[in-house]
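Entry 14. Two folds queued back to back today. First construct below, sequence then structure tokens.
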Amino acid sequence: MQKRLLLNSKHLSITISRLCHQLIENHLVFENTVLIGLQPKGVFLAERIKSKLEEIIKKPIQLGYLDITFYRDDFRRRDEPLTPNETKVPFIIEDKNVILIDDVLYTGRSVKSAMDAMSAFGRPAKVEFLTLIDRIHTRHLPVEANYVGKQVNTVFSQKVLVELTEQGKKEDKIWLIDKSK
């Protein structure tokens, strides 16, 4: 197995800051915009985005957590059952601008599942997607992110590993792992 570092802690901090400034350019003061992190790993990124946005605009931002377990198209195809995570959307999304946040965009299936799961909470005015790593050339569905931390050319035999301090790691590191070697 071969590992290549995509982002270290310093680069991740710069990337998150850039993503936040892009969000501010498009949503200004976040009057009608909410953030929803996809469980489990997108929540860590969503928390960081929320904190950085609040630091910059000096205003609270609404954040929810969305579990997509029962909306996945492979839910019944697995040998072991998936363990669901908490869904916590403490606000109405009806007519809001929703920014879905996940750590890695791979096949697009998680985003589709999130859209299906989100419909239980109302009909948003607009939905955008933010991802830290966009694995281009691996889509199964026509999905793309509005906000991208880093695009990476990958093949199916590779994996992106996101290690964050919130997950108990010593420091933030994002790796590209080649599973075939």
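Second construct, same run, same settings:
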Amino acid sequence: MWRGTLSTVSGIDATDARLLLALSQDPRATVMALSQSLGLARNTVQARLARLESGGVLDPFERRVRPEALGYPLGAYVTVTVVQTSLAEVSAGLADIPEVLEVIGLSGAADLLVQVVARDADDLWRISEQVLAIPGVQRTDTNLALRRFVDHRMTPLLRRAADR
């Protein structure tokens, strides 16, 4: 799994964007099919895909799996305020909780934004207690996700990059 600063991902050019758009439309497309549809040599497509993968451009496949399908219909975003010298330990503690999907460092009043999933309200309570029990956590604020209005998407940005 990729970890690091938000700015350590390699940039892409218009050809990379076209390749990613084609993959977005058909995630199971073969290298040969991609090369034919894009008018690129097979080796070029293969090399670009390898570079995009190793450069952190592509998220892991698991990002496509919906938590609801695994029995976690309740989602929440938890802001966490931590003792500043404990940020690494708190992050490691959060990573040990299976229901924690993502942890992002923030600027502002809270230090971390934690995306969690739960089976129901009682399960969310249990998870909240686990988060609060991590040494270095000072305060949490939990916000339930009630509805998804816009799915995670990259297509509009890829189209813009492909048109450059």
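Quick look at the second one. The two ends are 30 Å apart (CA to CA). Strands lie at 74-82, 100-105, 112-118, 137-145.
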